[in-house]
Amino acid sequence: MRLRAILNEVELDHPGVAAIGRVGQWLIEQAPDLYRRRDLAYEAEKVDVDVFGNPLPGAIVPPGAVRVDEARIIPAQVRAQAAQAAALMEAAARGDAGAADRLAAFAERMSDPRFATALIEKLGPQGLAILPAAMGSRVRRALDAADGSAEAVRRHNGDVLAMLSTALATATDLSKSAHVTRRFLEQLKKQGRAEVPVPGTGGQLTVHGYWAIGQILAAAPKAPYSTSFMTTIGHDLIRWDRDFLKANGEWPLARDTDVYDLPAPTDTRPFPGAGDIGVADPVAALLTAAGTTRESAQALIGSRDLLTYLMKERRPQWAMGDHGASLGAAMEAAMKGPDAPSKRLAVMATQIWSDLVAPHMTLNDAGDVEIEDPSELDCLSGARLAMGRILAEHTDDIVFAHFQRPPRLADDQLTGEVDGRATARFNATDLDRVLLDVAVDDQAYQALLHAQVAHLRGKIDYGLATRDRDMTDNMIVLDSGALGHLTEARRTALVSWGKEADAADEALRKLVEAGAGLVPIPFAQQVGKLGINAADGLYESFVRNGYAKAGEWLVEQSGHAGRRTAEAFSEAASNRAAAQELVKQMLASSAVAHGAYKREDLNQRFVTGDPPRVKDPILMSRDEYDGFSRWLTDNSTVPTDFGEAQQSVSVGADTFQDNIKAGIKRED
Predict the structure, then answer these.
(1) Rg (CA), the chain
(2) Which of 50, 42, 53 is nearest to 79 (CA)?
(3) Which of 111, 213, 407, 486 is 20 to 30 A from 494 via CA?
(4) pLDDT of 563 higher than 50
(5) How far is Cα 328 from Cα 90, in angstroms, rounded to an integer?
(6) What's the CA gap between 268 and 273, in Å, rounded?
(7) Residue 370 φ/ψ region, left for φ over 0, alpha for ψ in the -120 to 50 degree band, beta for the rest
(8) Cβ(526)–Cβ(570) under 8 Å?
(9) In this structure, are residues 279 and 253 in contact, taking their beta carbons and an 8 Å threshold?
């Protein structure tokens, strides 16, 4: 090009000059593609190549065509910047506080697929294992020095590992525009199972690569790890844990007080009720990361094999850490939804949990069901609340499971479909066993109770809105029966754990006394304006965010100050009597909300407005409500026997006992 310019300046023309011009123009046009080919060859096998993509002498290239993923192209400038960040991470791990500070400039880049991929590849699988180990070694020296520096060391470590975790999550997501290769993931799995010498210990202390990855995961529990990560690294990490525990028994989660073990590189407190900092359980950290999305959680614990290991065989290990709280979080993310995979896993989990409880069931001298050695079930106490919430969201399926009583089914039959919606096919005995353990947790029981009340509230309101007496009667019977199973499980659980049985009645009685049944569901007044056919869609919106939340809303609306009376509308002494009063409240409030009463005798003190209408029951005084209750008995246009509720609760409680006792006989 320079030669042609010189010739042009002296105004000389020659065919050779024209040829030079054409070649120069071709090079200009082809340069981007030439550089692209060079980068493709570089990415294909990481060999040195010339500008045309040809390997330099000495390079080894496998024979045959090389298949290249063009998404793997990462500009040299990005790789150079990632290499700089990798060097800063390594320096920070060795104790260079200034390096950790300079690394902060790259924080936003960790979510960039090209930068994150280049960084993770630069560190390599071995680097991912060594960095947390080196950080833990520095914490040990700081703790031994007892100079108060350990906290600052951990803070810097935490910042670095959090960025590294974000980069790892980004680079291992195979759906991103740039990502590590499957070969890299296989190398990472191999490194995860290998022992890594801890820097600064003279080779006397080693950790497994998956221990290190666990510390990285724990540093950024909300990092968006992908389903591809969960099915490759995640599955292998759990299998490594199973293999290790089988060969060596439980392994201790070192705390700062364990002077001969590597301490946590960051401020990690996975021990319930204890203030000690301890290393993160790699499996717990993995499950916590999986619990950020339904898809990741289902990808990680979607098989019976791994789920059984986590819930059953690993119980002693959970008892040393968070008692299964992280497992519960992943289960909740994977199992609460209305989709078929969520419901399939929810049923599977009840089967596994039921088998855990079964060996602990026994009968006392009076012939009543009790839990033998209940403390052994506390290994998974941290997962009880999550399991309660899971079952709460499938209340509709549970109600019908107690009525239809399907047998325990195989994995490919755990879900069905009704009116285009996925349904869970729970086994009633499995449910009762699970309730027997889960209901001892106050919050789990509350979630289940609120969901049951919300389900009954919605069905009664829908029945009265559509003037469907048969449907209303049937749902009162079915829901009250399911409520009987739940409240009897609560009573049996409390007794087994050495608590007062009277407390079993307290939660439901308080709901009734606060007037939870007097709260009409939202949108009830719109049915009259939009027509009866609108009822179905309106009531679906009541539980759109879940039965437990709908139940919480009812509780929040009842007993408020202001115009709502907080007086007790019931002095029910037992769950069975409280259930009857609850249904009575719901029928009353729904009858008023939908105008399901006669218009002839409206000269009453609980009537208001012009034209006259019955006042909302939750706004009535105690005397007004008493008069209204007597009046409604003769004036409701949808007469229903709420006494069925008390009888059905009794039947449900008795059926619960029969189910458990039958299981004990089979076990013997």
Answers:
(1) 33
(2) 42
(3) 407
(4) no
(5) 35
(6) 13
(7) beta
(8) no
(9) yes
Task: Please report, for residues 268, 287, 288, the alpha-carbon distance to residue 218 in angstroms, rounded to integers and kept in the order given.
Answer: 8, 10, 8
Residue for token pair 């499938």: 394
- H-only helix segments in 62-112: 76-94, 97-103
Three-state DSSP state, 116: helix
- In total, the chain counts a number of residues equal to 668
Close Cβ partners of 365 (under 8 Å, ≥ 6 residues apart): none
d(CA 386, CA 448): 11
Conformation bin of residue 498: beta by default, left when phi > 0, alpha when psi is -120 to 50 = left
| Residues contacting residue 628 through CB under 8 Å, at least 6 positions apart | 588, 604, 606, 614, 617, 620
Compute the distance between CA of residue 439 and CA of residue 441 in angstroms, rounded to an integer: 5
Pairing between β-strand 421-424 and β-strand 206-208 as defined by DSSP bridges: unpaired
The closest of 561, 557, 583 to 570, measured between CA atoms, is: 583
Structure tokens at 594: 């939908």
| Structure-token match 């001892």, residue found | 440
pLDDT digits (tens, 9 = 90+) for 210-251: 999 999 999 999 999 999 999 999 999 999 999 999 998 877
Per-residue DSSP letter, 198: P
Give the residue with greater pLDDT, 132 vs 566: 132
CA angle 295, 299, 305 (to 5 degrees): 145
CB 324 within 8 A of CB 318: yes
The C-alpha atoms of residue 178 and residue 165 are separated, in whole angstroms, by 17
Name the packing angle between helices 209-219 and 150-171 (round to 10°). Answer: 100
Environment class of residue 644 by beta-carbon count within 10 Å: exposed (0-12), middle (13-18) or buried (19+)? middle
Cα separation, 32 vs 30, whole angstroms? 6
* Amino acid identity at 14: H
DSSP 263: P
Tokens standing for residue 410 = 């195989």
Instruction: Report the distance separating Cα 609 and Cα 128, nearest Å.
Output: 73
645 backbone φψ class: left, alpha, beta (φ>0; ψ -120 to 50): alpha
Nearest to 338, CA basis, from 454, 402, 459, 423: 423
User: What's the average model confidence in pLDDT over 77-82?
Assistant: 92
Q: What is the pLDDT of residues 237-248, one digit of tens each?
A: 999 999 999 998
**Residue 84 tokens, joined:** 């700089």
C-alpha to C-alpha distances, 98 to 84, 123, 519, nearest whole angstrom: 14, 20, 61
Quote the pLDDT of residue 556: 85
CA separation for the pair 391, 444 (Å, rounded): 10
Select from 195, 518, 495 the least CA-distant residue to 369. 495
Other Cβ atoms closer than 10 A to 417: 9
The Cα 219–Cα 217 span in angstroms is 5
Query: What pLDDT was estimated at residue 62?
Result: 52
Residue type, 623: D
Verify cis geometry, omega within 30 degrees of 0, for the bond prior to 341. no
Say which residue the tokens 């690294």 belong to.
233
Whether residue 406 contacts residue 425, with contact meaning beta carbons closer than 8 Å, is answered with yes
- As a 3-state breakdown, the chain gives helix, strand, coil percent values, each rounded to 5, of 65, 5, 30
Strand partners, 363: 369
Q: What residue type is assigned to position 558 of the chain?
A: S
d(CA 633, CA 164): 68
The CA distance from 548 to 450, in Å, is 6
Phi, psi of 654 (to 5 degrees): -65, -40
Query: What are the pLDDT digits (tens) for 349-396?
Result: 999 999 999 999 888 887 888 888 888 899 999 999 999 999 999 999
